[in-house]
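Lab channel / #folding
Pinned by the channel admin:
"Please post every new chain as: sequence first, then the structure tokens as a reply. Keep commentary short and put observations after the output so the thread stays searchable."

First post following the new format, from NK:
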Amino acid sequence: MSESNKETMVVIGKLVIISVVAALLLAITYVPTSAQLKINEENSRKEILGELIPEANNNFEGVEGAVINEEGDREVLYYRAKDASGNIIGYAFFKQQAGAQGPIVVAGGVDSSFTTLRGMNILSHEETPGLGAKIVDDAFQTQFVDLPIASLGLSSSGGSVDAITGATISSKAVIDALNSKISEIEEAEE
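Reply from TO:
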């Protein structure tokens, strides 16, 4: 074996060792990191729910469905917001809906009588910047605070929500997400 071939083999050997060590370090840090990410996500969700129904003082009871997620846990369909005495004062939820450019994830809250939307928040979206992305603007989102459910629709269709100019599909997707999830919860709670 020539000197050049020996040097090449040494370099390849070092690269293999470095790759194996890096892979081991990634594997070692993955488990605790993924667990912490899951905890952070759950805390973030509770914080958002607390903003939607603040008088629940973060007393939210998850209502599980039959679907089991990748971790082997049952999926939470929605949350019952309870006061200090344990009485249900509302319902909070997360809903994914198809938008103009991709999925929109909406968080919402409704009172216990299903008559008033407490508010909503957009968690994620892929809508067009400057158009559909305006669904995260306060001017759009404040229209949903303490909105009667009977008025939850676009103003062009007889509702009380003004669509974002040039982004009717995104505006309608948010309303559809809220209406469908509220109907689903109301039916489940009967």
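NK: The helical segments are 3-52, 138-141, 168-189.
TO: also worth noting, The mean pLDDT is 89.
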